[in-house]
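hiii, so i know i said id send this last week but things got crazy w the move. better late than never?? heres the sequnce for the chain we talked about at the cafe, plus the structure i predicted for it. fair warning i was half asleep when i ran it
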Amino acid sequence: MDNALSTIIVIPAFNESGSLPGVLQHLHEVVPECEVVVIDDGSSDDTYDLAVVGGAHALKLPFNLGIGGALRAGFRFAAEQGFDRAVQFDADGQHDATEIATLLAELDAGADLVIGSRFAGTGDYEVGRTRSAGMGLLRVAVRLLSGRRFSDTSSGFRAMSSRLLHQFAVEYPVEYMDSTETLISACRMGFDVREVPVTMHERSAGEPSNRNFRLVYNYARLLVVLATTARAKTPALAEVGT
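okay and structure toks below
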């Protein structure tokens, strides 16, 4: 690859035909030097076709695996194609492409994982009461298990180094709330994890995939998983590329 530090934007997408074209256009205008891969997670609409028309690499999963499975497929593609770093980006218009430079600057400064926080920026992103309470519990759990404080443990706007990209290409949870689990895992494995404030917005089209009753289940499931692994031995780093 020609770039000294080549970057790919990894976008998991499930029935996002309403917002994806605008997201891809925004990325093309703001970060034309970055390539994009869209993982169509078993959509029933024309998400895949719109990804191709929008100039992105496109992977079509045969059925819906959930965001974790889609991200693992995207990270594996990025690692196999030799990209130096990756940015995880949503297909629903919540993330602002102008903030990608903020995340990449922290990678340049030595970070392995950079979290874009929804709650330390200046955007118009808001959460409901149920989600807010769940996020509060997760912040406490992450602090207890990682020894670190983060304001947004479940943010899907992230940038990662080559080392962590290769780790996630082979080891990434497929369940919902994968972002919190991988945050803890990255901290416990000794990766340099940082958080920066970014602007985020409400989704531009479509409906969120999880309603309140599913959120309650997933928050409960994750807390059980975290509790049962709290005393687990810190995993060793996988054989990763540099």
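btw Residues 233-242 have pLDDT under 50 and may be disordered. thought thatd interest u
miss u guys!!
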